[in-house]
Amino acid sequence: MDDALHVARERVLGDSDLLLEVLRPLLPDLLKIESQFGTKTPPNRLQLASVVWQGLTLRLLSKDAKAAVDLVFDAFLKHVHDQFATFVKVTRDYVHRVVYPDRAQMHRYTVCQLTRASVWPSFLLNAEPLPNDCSVEQMNKSRKPQTMIDVYNLLAERCAICGTRCRYKCRVIPKSQPVWMQRSTPGSGEYISFTSYDHFVEVRFVEARPCANGQRRPAMQLRVYTHFKEVDYVFLDFLASVRKESDYEDCILQLFQRRRAACPAQAAGDFIAHLPLFNLKLKSSWPVDSSIASIFNRTDAQMAALTRSGRYIATRTESGYWRLPCTEEDYTVY
In angstroms, rounded to a whole number, what is the distance separating the alpha carbons of residues 162 and 171? Predict the structure, then answer.
């Protein structure tokens, strides 16, 4: 009996066409999923996430299994990419018709097209129902899935900074309220889904800030909107420590070198970035300037060590609870 099972297993694993037919029911079915949109039993995000994860696991069976799964996954991903591209195209028409509604009939037609094109983007990003101007803008500028691992992370609603469900989930509305991430390169901003503003800091990078001794040196300054968040205080602890490191100024200058290479007209002076303090955990094609930690080439353990060290450099407020740097030049409240 064991020999027969072994022979059958080898036959299935060795026949790519047969293997594909065996594995296909275990993989995402585009037609089935799309047929459920708009019905009383819409597709379940977590169930689809489980199916995608199952496919990622099946890829490990053998070389032929990997090829069979990749065939289905590639078609799935291409369809999703096409849907996102169509959504971006229809969005332009929609925005144009809203601003210049010459013909109401054409406007209604564009809204219908927009709703149809938004099926996969809104499902993966768990966005608000369309048409909604805010949702359209956010979905249009949200980070698109590049791999099936990205698709799984979106379906599982994993936070890019936590690596799991966001620990600040209680502060995030049920529908995904994406967070705007602005990197150092002009025009590089994008919305990140299923995370929280509590991970992010707004920082002004300066290429040559005047110092008390008359010199001009690279620096960075925390920008706080209205009130301090916990992560803002952690950043100030980090800043108090990291500016004493030998590579502090070099890391900031490298940012301006990348800006100058990307867009010479906007490279000089200063710029504002909105980034997570710690490294991004999800495996994806993240740029080098996607977090404060990655800009300074620090691991999370090194970031934590610098933060602890900065607490002793910084001073305390009158309440004695939160810590602030010794100089108010390190932050501004607006």
Answer: 14
Give me Rg for the CA atoms of the chain: 25
Provide the 10 A C-beta neighbour count for residue 33. 19
**Model confidence band, residue 3 (pLDDT cutoffs 50, 70, 90):** very low
Strands 323-324 and 315-316: antiparallel
How does pLDDT run across 126-185, given as a tens digit for each residue?
A: 876 565 666 777 888 888 899 999 999 999 989 999 988 888 764 444 445 789 999 988
Pairing of strands 216-224, 323-324: unpaired
d(CA 275, CA 289): 9
Q: Are 191 and 181 in contact (CB under 8 A)?
A: yes
Contacts of 208 (CB under 8 A, 6+ apart): 216, 217, 218
**Element spanning 199, H or E:** none
pTM of the model: 0.81
> 202 CB contacts (<8 Å, ≥6 apart)?
222, 223, 224, 225, 272, 273, 274
Residue 178, C-beta contacts closer than 8 angstroms, at least 6 positions apart? 125, 138, 142, 191, 192, 193, 194, 195
